[in-house]
Specification:
CATH topology: Immunoglobulin-like
Number of domains: 1
Number of helices: 1
Number of strands: 8
Order of helices and strands: HEEEEEEEE
Radius of gyration: 20 Å
Largest sheet: 5 strands, mixed
Structural class: mainly beta
Strand order of the largest sheet: 2-8-7-4-5
Distance between the termini: 79 Å
Strand content: over 45%
CATH superfamily: Immunoglobulins
Shape: globular
Length: about 140
């Protein structure tokens, strides 16, 4: 009977840990927040969503990333790390996650003398953990 009770207790612990696992989604201390969507474009709507969703940009464009988060956490931070095709970091900046459910955070990059053509990507990190990646390219203006 003691073995059965110990076995039930062990199984309960294993199931509890497995059911509470957060499927590789970063979680902030004191709350739960996840990155639910990342969109890229040339302009933003007033709610910080992308007005013209695209992954193809001209060298003269300002490139916006709109990051949608679900949940809240008091000390959650988003980081956008923009890189060029050879892995060279173009820009990196961080912002706190807004303290409301279903929020959007905006990041952008601009280069007055124009972006070199080629492939780029933006990694979105939540509390230092990669939450999403979007690939995009800069093509020559016609």
């Amino acid at each position: 009977m003691q073995i059965t009770a110990a076995l039930v207790a062990s199984l309960s612990l294993v199931l509890s840990v497995a059911c509470n696992r957060n499927e590789n989604k970063p979680v902030a201390a004191g709350g739960k927040v996840t990155v639910s969507d990342v969109d890229l474009g040339r302009s933003l709507n007033p709610d910080r969503s992308i007005d013209d969703d695209t992954t193809s940009f001209k060298p003269s464009d300002t490139i916006y990333a709109s990051v949608e988060t679900d949940g809240t956490a008091p000390d959650a931070t988003l980081t956008a790390r923009w890189t060029y095709q050879d892995g060279q970091t173009v820009n990196e900046s961080s912002q706190p996650v807004p303290a409301k459910d279903d929020a959007r955070t905006e990041f952008h990059i601009a280069k007055p003398d124009g972006w070199p053509t080629g492939k780029y990507k933006v990694d979105i990190l939540l509390n230092g953990n990669k939450a999403d990646t979007k690939d995009f390219e800069v093509v020559a203006e016609k």
